[in-house]
């Protein structure tokens, strides 16, 4: 009886202090008290979903404040604060998982002409990071020119050490993502995201979630994959689909092979409205068909064993050259489950790109 009363009193004290810390600026003494009390309750710094659906990490409210996070509701049965991170100042350094990098005043667009750089630093103490994932939650930059070239606005990714060249992006990227490969064991600033907004007119905006992928994570894509999808079916779109696709890209779309699935089939997605789901131009006059020698912009993956590697372009995505209606294209019965999209930097009018649906087939 006495014991439970004591526990009750301790609990009330925590609650009371918790409330107090929100209402008054805590003095050093009060903060110490708060810390020592909260140290009694231990919880993991797990991922949490804060108010408004923002992803955060569960910290004590003091830890969240120290890390300059934003409290977005509670976690750990009310003992923790779902702490979200966002940086909207150019030159900012990302150190926390799921940090949002945004233009200043987001969701209002920016009309400032400049290059806004963000550095992504490996989480202190964690050296087992293999990838960084960028989720373009809302990102609308200037459209490329008619040849798919990002002229004024561009989003550029670089890594330290530099290993591969990442595609330069512009246009509408909302809903898309990109993986950055990190050399295992590297610490400090491992990647840089530069957003250049140089057009004199029109508001541009970006809100990009940056997350760290542990080398042992089950959701870790293989190296070299710029996009990665789990589950028996996935929909892939070229960057800026709806506008023109971008030139000078080499993008691997990778799919986790699901249990009991041995191959995959690719087809044009059903696009709502008047849109076309596939348009990769291979020079004037060579449209309306699949051609097997596509060199400027093409989709490539190993199809039926007899045909081997095959490039596909044109205005119809189908199995056979000359097709005028779309058809399903099955992959070879082999791994990896991967599709390559390649465009070269050529002064050539670009098409809309692609919106394809990939379905894994039972063995
Ligand atoms: C970062 O958060 C993501 C969720 O967005 C999670 O899948 C991942 O495991 C977290 N990374 C680390 C290193 O904790």
UniProtKB/TrEMBL annotation:
InterPro entries: CUB_dom (IPR000859), CUB_metazoa (IPR058698), Sperma_CUB_dom_sf (IPR035914). Residues 90-213 form the CUB domain. Residues 1-20 form the signal peptide. The keyword Zinc does not apply. It holds the Pfam family CUB. Keywords: Disulfide bond, Signal. This is CUB domain-containing protein. It comes from Tigriopus californicus (Marine copepod).
């Amino acid at each position: 009886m006495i014991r439970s009363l004591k526990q009750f009193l301790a609990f009330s004290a925590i609650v009371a202090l918790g409330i107090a810390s929100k209402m008054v600026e805590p003095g050093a003494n009060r903060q110490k008290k708060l810390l020592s009390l909260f140290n009694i309750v231990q919880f993991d710094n797990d991922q949490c979903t804060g108010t408004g659906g923002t992803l955060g990490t569960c910290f004590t409210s003091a830890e969240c404040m120290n890390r300059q996070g934003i409290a977005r509701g509670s976690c750990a049965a009310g003992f923790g604060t779902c702490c979200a991170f966002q940086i909207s100042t150019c030159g900012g350094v990302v150190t926390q998982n799921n940090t949002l990098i945004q233009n200043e005043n987001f969701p209002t667009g920016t009309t400032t002409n400049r290059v806004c750089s963000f550095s992504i630093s490996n989480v202190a103490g964690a050296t087992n990071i293999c990838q960084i994932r960028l989720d373009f939650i809302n990102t609308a930059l200037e459209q490329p020119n008619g040849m798919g070239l990002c002229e004024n606005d561009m989003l550029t990714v670089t890594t330290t050490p530099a290993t591969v060249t990442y595609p330069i992006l512009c246009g509408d990227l909302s809903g898309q993502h990109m993986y950055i490969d990190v050399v295992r064991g590297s610490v400090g600033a491992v990647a840089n995201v530069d957003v250049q907004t140089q057009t004199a007119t029109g508001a541009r905006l970006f809100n990009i979630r940056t997350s760290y992928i542990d080398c042992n994570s089950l959701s870790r894509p293989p190296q070299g994959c710029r996009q990665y999808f789990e589950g028996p079916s996935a929909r892939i779109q070229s960057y800026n689909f709806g506008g023109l696709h971008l030139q000078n890209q080499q993008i691997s779309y990778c799919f986790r092979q699901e249990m009991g699935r041995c191959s995959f089939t690719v087809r044009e997605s059903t696009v709502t409205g008047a849109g076309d789901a596939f348009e990769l131009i291979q020079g004037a006059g060579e449209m309306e068909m699949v051609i097997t020698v596509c060199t400027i912009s093409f989709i490539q993956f190993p199809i039926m064993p007899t045909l081997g590697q095959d490039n596909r372009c044109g205005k119809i995505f189908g199995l056979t050259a000359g097709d005028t209606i779309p058809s399903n294209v099955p992959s070879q019965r082999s791994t990896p489950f991967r599709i390559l999209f390649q465009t070269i930097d050529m002064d050539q009018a670009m098409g809309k790109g692609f919106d394809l649906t990939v379905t894994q087939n039972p063995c």
